[in-house]
Design a protein that fits this description.
single chain; 468 residues; alpha+beta; Acetylcholine Binding Protein, Chain: A; 2 domains; four-stranded antiparallel sheet; 9 helices; rod-shaped; 5-hydroxytryptamine receptor 3A-like
Amino acid sequence: MIPVGFFLLLFISGEVSSEEICSYQDVLNHLNLTRSNELYSMSRPVKNYKNPTQVSLEVLLYAILDVVEKDQKFIPYVWTVVRWNNEYISWDPNNFCGIDNISIPTEVLWQPDLTIEEMTEKDKAPPSPYLTLNNKGDVEVQNDQVLVSTCRMHTYRFPFDIQSCSLTFKSVIHTVKDIRLQPSDNSSEATEWSRELMRTQYEWLFIHMTVTASNASDLTEQDVVIYTITMKRRSVLYIVNFLLPVLFFLSLDLASFMISDSSGEKLSFKVTVLLAITVLQLILNEILPSSSNRVPLIAVYCIGIFAMMMLSLLETILVMYLLEKNSQECETDTNHCVVQESNTTRKRRFHCCQKEVHEWAQGGLIYNMSAGETPSEMLHAPKEDNIKHMDEYCTLEQISEDLRLMEKTMARLIKDKTEDNVGYWSRVAKRVDRVFFFLYITMVGLFLLGMFFEWNTAETESYLDSSF
């Protein structure tokens, strides 16, 4: 009978011997994978060169870091997984305590030369230093990449726009004879997994990701896998910081119609509001790209409001010109009437005074003769004194009459100014101002309504296009 201790000893010795060979280094030694050995890294790992290497690609979106409309740049943070098979590598996990995968440095094995057509700058994130290798020879490389790529921006609906930017993966030199590139997931899977991985979206909201595989039919061409990322801009900040201020300035211009046209305050107020719109247009010019084929709706919005405010300013200048013309004509007519009336009054008073002097002189002569004085004394001394006194009297009467005339004229001018009905041009100016005000309100309402429907229609069409 064999003692129990003997079996226990055999079990312990077997376990120890098993632990001695169960290490990753043993697998590497078995495969002869070392940094100095360039057997697996020099060429494409196939036993028959006619067999293309099947490369599988998976791309997931971590974050949308930035979208620069001015420079037509799209900067996403993505996670890429590339898988292929190395026909020279395999081992039996049973011989190595069940080890079925190992991690080795990336430079040890050959890797497919995939590139992104739209990428304009080198990846800023450090590449992964290791790759994963399983017992069947399947190799997997995972990388986190910050991509700076080009993207054609469609800013017609800005800031309610929906952008679609593509990342096109393909081999640099290998054709379909060497590498067959295929996506490992479909559009719905890529979209769902990207939403789960995404942590932040900044200004843009991720909508979905579309995966498209373009298989080459000619052996001299290359397979292409395109990942199209569709996103929507958060427009609240642009509404608060741009669209509403422009609308407020338009409201101020409408309110300026209540300012009197007789003073220069209305004109200066309208010019100030117009300059404020100009400043906002300069800010908008720094945001939108200059290479857009269509004029963005927000530019049409600003230009339309600017044009209407300029028409309002020109109408104010016209009204002020008509009022000034009316004032000049009224002043000329008033001075002419005053001068004419003054001359007539002076002539009438002069003739009246002469007649009174003559009659008074004759009356004085008769009176003195009846008193028994000599005719020569009657005809000389009293006559000169009487004429002198009458001249002074006429002068005082003339001055008094002129003062009364000036008082009546001033009262008439004040009355005409109060009633604001001083002439023809004043009535024309009032009529022009009233008609333009109603036309202005109508134009503003129709313009804003048209912009709203155009923005809404364009946004709906863009969303439908991005869905398909």
